[in-house]
Design brief:
- The protein has about 325 residues and is α/β, with parallel strands linked by helices.
- It has two domains: about 130 residues, Aspartate Aminotransferase, domain 1; about 180 residues, Aspartate Aminotransferase, domain 2.
- Helix content is about 35%, strand content about 20%.
- It is built from eleven helices and 13 strands.
- The protein has a seven-stranded mixed β-sheet with strand order 2-8-7-6-5-3-4, with helices on both faces. A four-stranded antiparallel β-sheet has the order 9-10-13-12, with helices on one face. Strands 1-11 form a two-stranded parallel sheet.
- A hairpin with a 2-residue loop joins strand 12 and strand 13.
- It is globular.
- The protein starts with a helix and ends with a helix.
Length: about 325
Amino acid sequence: MAGHDEKLNPRAARDHGGGLDGAIATYGGARADWLDLSTGINPHPYEVSGLIPSDWAELPDHGAFERLADAARRFWSVPEGAAILPAPGASAVIARIPGLAAQGRVQITTPTYNEHAAAFTAQGWAVQSDGPAEARVIVHPNNPDGRVWSEADANAPLTVIDESFCDVSPEASLIHMAERPGVIVLKSFGKFWGLAGLRLGFAIGQPNLIAQLNDLTGPWAVSGPALRIGEVALNDTSWADATRARLIEDTKRLDQLVTAKGATLAGGTTLFRLYNVENAVDWQARLAAAQIWSRVFPYSRTYLRLGLPPTDGWDRLEAAL
């Protein structure tokens, strides 16, 4: 059955958070019973409101894309010389970026988000962890260890700066580099705003690069509801400020709770934490017995990653630990 499932879903074997159906198949319970801490998604999502029937019934107009792009430009302080492409999630852009240049070598320092290497490999690039290359990917801050990069690290003719988790620390953003030749900055809407199911992301870079990506994604790539919700949320800077403050406090609470049980902090952001434990698989199994799902990694025996629980999940996590 495993082989059959992988044929139906070619990404089934790729290492990601989520996968709650698999946890349920192994440990039982209904989806509503589980607390999923395996992802880095804000557990207090932005409140969705204001949708109108035409958002669902009509093809999105150009003006809706422009209003969303304008809101994104203000929120992220995008340089005037850079263009913005809304897309159906950052992953949709990641899959297309390797097609912007001739096949060559791409430097992707591991461990990191594995869709970048998968996308380049699928389009014939040679992936390497260091050394000179025609392209480079830096995930800033990095997933899973929270490493931040510098401007000097963006040094290849085609450079991808994945800032999917950078909204928790906007002061660290490298967005000012987006108008430089060959640089593409990626932004994810689903993580910070807690609306991953909306499937909304952004590619920001020189107009010629963004135009090429736009041609690859095709028309109406973003749904009407995503366009409207994204515009409203990006204009709500008060919510963003309050959310950053809450995430800082919740992160402190999570660190205290988990390290008190013998784990040590290995890194992360205020949307997820990476811990070193004696045996990550054992920790995951013990938490799963209490129907709490966590993240382990095939390349590390000791890495355990936890997202933040919602308000009503803290007592459950403490009891499970």
